[in-house]
Amino acid sequence: MSTLSELFLTYQSLIGFVGIDALLALSVYATLCCGQLSLANAGFMAIGAYAAAILTFHTKLPFAAVLLASALAPAAFAVPLGLPVLRLRGVFLAIATIGFGEVVRLALVNWDFTNGALGLVAIPQRAGLLTIYLILGIALFFFARLRGSKLGYALDSIREDETAARTMGINTTLAKLSMFVFGAALAGVAGGLEAHFTFMVAPSGYSFSRVVDMLVYAVVGGVATYVGPPVGAAFMTLLPEVLRGLGESVGLGPGPLRLFVSGAILLAVVLFLPNGIVSLPLLVAAVRMRRQRG
Amino acid sequence: MHRFHEPLIFALAASFAAYGADAVKVGAALSMTGPAAVYGTAQKNGIQAAVEDVNKGGSLKSVRLEAVFDDDGSKKEQGINVFQKFINQTRASVIIGPTLSTTATAADPIAQQSKVPVLAISNTAPTGITDIGDYIWRDSLTEGQVIPGAVKKARARLGFKTAGVLYGNDDVFTKAGYDVMKKALDNEGVQILETQTFAKPDRDFNAQLTALKSKNPDILVISALADNAASIVTQARQLGYTGPVLGGNGFNSPAFIKNAGSAAEGVLVGTAWNSSSQDPANQAFLKSMRDRGISPDQFTAQAYAGVLIIAEAIKQAGMKGSREDIKAGFAKVRDLPTPLGKFSFTPARDALHEPSVQQVKGGKFEILQ
Amino acid sequence: MGQQAINGIFLGSIYALFAVGYTLVFGVLDIINLAHQAVFMLGAFFALVLVGTLHVSIAVALPIAVLFSGALGILLDRIAFRPLRGRADSNLAGLITSIAVATLFEAIALQLFGPDTSRFPFGTFPERRLQVGAAVVSTLQLGIVAISVVLMVILTYLLRRTRLGRQIRAVAESPRAARILGIDVDRVIAASFFISSALGGAAGVLFALAFNSLSPDVGRSVELKGLAVIILGGMGSVPGAVLAGFAIGLIEVFTVAYLGSSYRDAVSFAVLFSVLLIRPRGLLGRAALREA
After folding, report:
1. Are C116 and B227 an interchain contact pair (Cβ–Cβ within 8 Å)?
2. Global pTM value
3. Is residue A229 part of a domain?
């Protein structure tokens, strides 16, 4: 049916973006699930993306190897960064990691070998929907195995009360660092995928607002379980496109008004769905039960 | 999602029928929100005016142009989404835009893959745009085509031997401009005493300007976009710098003069659009924008010219407006009268027309003789 | 050298004024208010409308814009922060709601004023250039530094010597204890937001006057710089923010003069990192900022 194939062609890129954004949301969730707010992931994503692009241009490595490198490169940065920085409390960790992200972006803008502001262009499209969702599936699998594992319980107890966890003998430093590095690897691989899906990388794509977007995906979806962040990513990535399509029929043309509606929806979701979108079915069920009881 | 789009598809089909099979859809992918919104808005004004003028003028006989606008949010992902929509859903015959070079390097390959012609109206990156493929064309002169002439002319007039250079290093437009300025100055034997940079969001340039002024250069050469340009020049004068200033394309905007006020006097600008040109095509454009109450800048002019070029391509293809027709028609555009002057494409599908050098005199741009 | 010092003090005074509001809210609520830069921007636009369209003099427009920004702060508290009080994730959620409101404010500004850069009309502030040795200072610059300092002095007096100030400090110390002592915590928080946003708006107006540039995205350039300032100064410490504001202003300017402008922003972040790793409580902040 021509309408279906037309729909697919129109939205194929969008579907890819949803997958990549889901990975990014999970990368932020990786540290959130042990109670740490790390906002370095735009920087890690940039490192992974550029590393992957450079490898594609200068070597004949198969794409799987390139993706592996895009995960390992930021992980290598995450270890020396994480050790000192994870000792900081809540908002200070957040600010330190924001600083890291900005330094990465500034370095990319100012260096000639990364081609400064224009970035690297004409990257062959080696990542398709299948690859993106395969990697997403692997990431989800990891998180699923985390639940109920020793590390998983350790993370839960760290999130509840880190001091108590340490007293109980849990190596909190190792646990937090592992998730920090894992988050970096996820962001890096998402960067590598995106580089090979959108044909180019440039520093402007890895700004502070990028990591803020990732955080928003996770929180809007719900950070109680690993299902929340991908749902939040899908919601926030599809939202402007739904508004774009819907908007025309209701007279909401391109421009500030659409931006306003996005902001209002974000506010509403955080205020009225404190546990994220995934808690919506539970909320609906609870309301229904309360009504039945009279 | 399917539910939202069924009625939309019917609506599109219905409007298509209403316009008759002779409506050629021009998809305008512009930045209407985000950091590039200033330029996207100017471009929308130019495109809208041109489409109306072309349809009213009747030069395309029974063929009508229909512009469909959408916002790429100054982001490459949204740019890609808009392109996909234009290509697969709106079924545009040609796409005009996107505003930023970085968006173009991400979205244009998709148009190339889908064999849809794209006319860039503000992408000035020296490489990475038209190199993408034979469906990608542009009417915006790169700084490489504008600056060398400006430096040469300015030097002939003012005879400067040393220069201080200031440029924005986080924007493709201004960085590319700097690369060209440096080469042009070197070629002219001008010694660059000091180079300073800034970032687009910056508003305070006192530190850089003080450092530049302290070296006592004969001239300040600046690569910046209009809003930064105004602040830079104002602050330079406030700091007591009295020497000449030479700017690139980004200075070519009424906003520059408006925001810089008296500080803009005497500034030399290398530009792709000679706003004071007495050419009938330019005068008609100026009148058209005046009637709409819009003060045009270079972005408006290049956008307006873009639509004229598309119309010419359709004419050259025998009044036919399919994707292949427009692509073939572009190749036949030669010395077309536009607000930018007589326009043709280079064999590499880049813009070819005479750039100019202007000077701000009495609060207005004047051509430098 | 002297000129650069003047540039640094000038820039620093605006950073300090911006950061003071930022740090006040953090001290009281433990939250980074990412909408502060949007209030900064709207306050400036409000003053621009008064001066540019209604031809009010800047001497009158500035205080009115300051009050307007304060009111925006109260609105911000009501819609983005108060509904979250008591929620376990209030810090994280508050971060996001402040982002959402910043988006709303920016969209409104974009719709009302368009994306173009505007400036205050010429002659808004009497400008004259004065020679100080080899350096040049304008009366505008002197005026801005003076106004910033006056506002910061007023704030310090308010916090130290008034009842409201004592209540704010009590709530910052411990909201629960404050409530037990009979303090209306919600009202005090609202007052803190009023003050914080009023100062933020003032900073915005002065910024727009200082650099002749105002657009809906003007807040972005100071947002991250502001974080570096409050970290250096010590989170929650108003005198710290003042000191750090001037320090960062001077550091930035001298970095440009001696290292090159590419390093300008990077140095601020380097300072941020060093402070967080070596002495997280900053210059004048309270201790105990690591995990216990």
Report:
1. yes
2. 0.90
3. yes
